[in-house]
Amino acid sequence: MGKTANPWYEISPKRAAKLNVKKHREAESLFLAEGEALVRESPSPPVRTFESEAEVRRVSSLKTPAGPVGVFPFLDVSVEELLTARDRVILLHGVQDPGNVGTAIRSAHAFGAGVALSTGCADLYNPKTVRATMGSLFHAPVARELDALDFLGRAGTAGFRTVAAVPGGGEAPGSFLAGKSVVVVGAEGSGLPEAVLKKCDARVTVPSRAASLNAAVAASILLYHAYSRVLG
Question: Where do the domains of the chain lie, and which CATH numbers do they carry?
Fold first, then answer.
C-alpha cells in the first residue's frame, strides 16, 4: 500500500510552526490553538499536541509561549449548514481586526448564534483570532470568506430577516430582533457599503453617546438583544 501524504501523526514542530501563516493553514486545512484552557474547550482532541517547552517555543506565535499547542482540523461550515444550525446569525462585513472577529464569535457562542464572515474579514484561523475566541470557535458555527450580498440573498430565501447595524437612524434593537434574523455589522471606521444596506430588510441602531461603537461591542449588544427576545 502507498504511504498517505502528510498524515497528521507526522506533524513535526517545524511543520506545525508553518501553520502560523495563512497559506500553509489553507494548504493543510489545519490550525493551531495555544494554551491549556483553549485546547481544553475543544469537544474533540487535537490531532497533534506539543507540550514540551522546546516544542512549544518552536511552534508558538507568542513572544511568551503559553503552551500546550494543539493542532486542529478546520471547523468552518457551509452557508447551508450555518442557516440550518441557528435562527440568529451575525454577519461581519470587512472587520479586519482579529480581536474583534474573535470577540464576536465568543459573543455568538454565549448568545446561541452563528457567525458569517465576509471576504475581507480577519482570518478565522489567525492565531490572534483563535485566542480572542477563548475557545468559542469550537462551539459556534462559523462560515467564512463569503460574498456578503450573496449570503444575504440566500438568508432571505431561507426565511431570515436581514438587518443592518448603522450608527444612527435605525430602529431600536429591542423592537424587532426576534425570529430568524441576520444582523450585519461592519468595521467601525468604514461601516457598511450602500449595496449591503440596500440588500437588508431593515436597519438597527444601538443608542450611544459615542459617535460609533467597536464592531465586536455592537455585535455583542445586538446578539444579546436578539437572545433576550427568545428568553422573554
Answer: 10-73 (3.30.1330.30), 79-231 (3.40.1280.10)
pLDDT at 94 over 60: yes
Angle at 187 between CA 185 and CA 188, to 5 degrees: 105
Cβ atoms 141, 86 nearer than 8 A: yes
Closest CA to 118 of 87, 95, 86: 95
Report residue 17 as a C-alpha cell: 510552526
For residue 83, the tally of other CB atoms under 10 A from its CB is 24
For the stretch 116-138, pLDDT in tens is 999 999 999 999 999 999 999 99
Query: How far apart, in whole angstroms, are the C-alpha atoms of residue 178 and residue 197?
Result: 20
Contact 116, 229 (CB under 8 A): no
Rounded CA gap, 231 and 15, in Å?
46
